[in-house]
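pipeline stage [seq->struct] | target=Vomeronasal 2 receptor 570 | organism=Monodelphis domestica | residues=771
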Amino acid sequence: MLAVEEINRNTKLLPNMTLGFHIFNAYHKDERTLESSVVWLSGQGPTIPNYNCERQGKSIVVIEGATSELTISMGSLLELYRIPQVTYGLFDPFLSDPVQFPSVYQMAPRDTSLPLAMVRLMVHFKWTWVGLVASDDPRSEKFLRDLQEEMVRNDVCVAFIQKIFTGLTEDNHYIYYFLNKLFRSKARVIVIDGNTDTLLTLRVREVAHALVYRMWITSSHWDIAKKPGYVYFDNFHGALIFADQTSKIPGFKHFLKTIHPAKDPENIFLQSFWNSAFGCTSKVGRVDGAVCSPNASLDTLGLSYLDMTMSHQSYTVYNAVYAIAWALHEMFLVRSEMESNRNGNNSGAYPWKLHSFLKNIQFNNSAGNHVVLDEKKKSVANYDILNYVAFGNDTEVLVKVGEFISEAPLGQAFIIQEKAIVWPRTWGESERERKGIDRYVGRETETEIDKEKSLLSHTKSLESQISNSSSLDQCMKCPEDQYPNTEKIQCLPKRVIFLTYEETLGMALASIAASFSLLTALVLWVFVKHKDTPIVKANNRDLSYILLFSLSLCFLCSLFFIGRPSAINCLLRQTTFGVMFTVAISSILAKTITVVLAFRATRPSSRSRRWVGSRTPISLVVFCTLIQVMLCAIWLFLSPPFPDADTYSDPEHIILECNEGSLIAFYLVLGYIALLALGSFTVAFLARNLPDTFNEAKFITFSMLVFCSVWLSFLPTYQSTKGKMMVAVEVFSILSSSAGLLGCIFIPKCYVILLQPQKNTNKFLRNNPIS
């Protein structure tokens, strides 16, 4: 109201135009929020979507949002019409996405320095056992993560983490569970943050024993002063509040003194607030209260009803109205004279036209502060530290006792006046002298409520901390080879684990590897025994021998991954695997090329005849293998794999594993094999339909498809697993891909050799090609 009145008196800002506003209810349910939005879009007539029954005073911008949820709910409808949404709530990084929320403009400064400011306060007073309470929404989730990280860096322990779930704040069982949790907790310093809507119910509960006798650290976003009069004033007495720094708006206090429902009878919100605040009624003859005095003034109300100083949220709304006015000013400057003066109203001011001006708007408000809507240019918020003091006569005040300037030089950012602080009722002198009251560190008494596991979560960095004394200033961290017991008072040794032959998984993988290796050797014996038959001689008999021998070793090399890692074991496992698979895949590539050469050799006067039957395919295998050997040699020389112990992935175990040394070298080895496999697949696919009697390109194509599928699945799975399961994933990939090559290429040939020998003759093959 103040901003609109000032703008309308300013003849230079919006000349020949009167700025007005409508007020609509913001509900706590999505369907009611959307209903209110449709009413606003349709006008005062029937709520018909896509029709506007309002002929005058059409709104072109909405100022909204104490919470991000409200902005998101309204945005699902308003974005259809590209109506600008200017929010006055807390800055939410989620709303900064220009793709999801292209029409949302956040007025509040970034509050990324709030966790640092709060931890500076904890460190100053040596508060090291602190409880955390926050509402269940994405912004509070990020705040908790940032706060915990900052606490860990400064050796401050988290006593408990409690989330207030939206929709459960009216559930009495949930409320008493939460209050019982606070009452049983030994943490006497509690940080509470969140949106007012979620925490409203907790704020007004008459359960003083759970709330008093604590040092509450909060932000001005959760206004502890605003509450019904029947609530104990002592609940949050002594709390320290981080309030966003704002400048005094000239004329604001005078404006509040002049407000009266009689001067603005159409403002039903003001009339309702007035009746509630002064305990009176505006209608004569009503028996439910005295008639309101015509001389009543807002400056006589207590803090629980109205703070005469402008809050940060009100300051943001004030700037939001001015931002819209300046955007309109810029828009009308660039329009033609005919459009800008059409009927003296804003009928030509379409909502979507304001976006280009709102994005770039910059101005100085009446307090002299620079206001900018571009989020890239927004400054980080600074904070006043306010002390909430409740007196015995049910009056209360907020006293500034310090400040935090985020961009101040080192050592000057945090300022606190200890002597000016009024502490909670039970804060003893001896505790104040040592600047801390939470020396007791121990395990929190557990409640017997089933929801606790889902409502409490501790970060891994805090799980490794213990305290075995009530006089410690800070938690102790267990050594890397130990972990804390459930009572958090003793460190226990971690058990060493790795993929062994004795466990079921290791035994199964080793058995499969040995079985497939023997099966491959058996196939090789069959081929050697029938070496003079046409089907064995097809596509280069020597290459078949090399491929079978390398596949047998591929199965066996997986055994290097099972058992306790050692220096030799770590050096051999990946290099052996890389070289053996290179021999196998290069043999397949050579066999595929042989198919192509054999087909070309059937043409008259073809030059390819001299390559058929020569040692060229063998030379190709040797050449490809030498490249892989050189890569492995460089890997072993520069950064060889070595035995390592993972003490972080599992809080109760030490996982023995092989550190690859250089991940780049590891993926180079895999990449080279993938390159050969891709070449083999491409050539085989192109040669699959060649009319050659001995064409096995179809089998090779299918085998390479299986091979590539296995290793494409391996990469994301390998990255997402830890410890011995990561080893098992690689072993399984080696066995399955090797089995795929063996089965797809050689099982059909063995079937013919052993079960249908009549087909393994030159005469039959000429008349009935295998392919």
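stage status: PASS
auto-comment: The first strand starts at residue 62 and ends at 64. Residues 343-347, 429-462, 468-473 have pLDDT under 50 and may be disordered.
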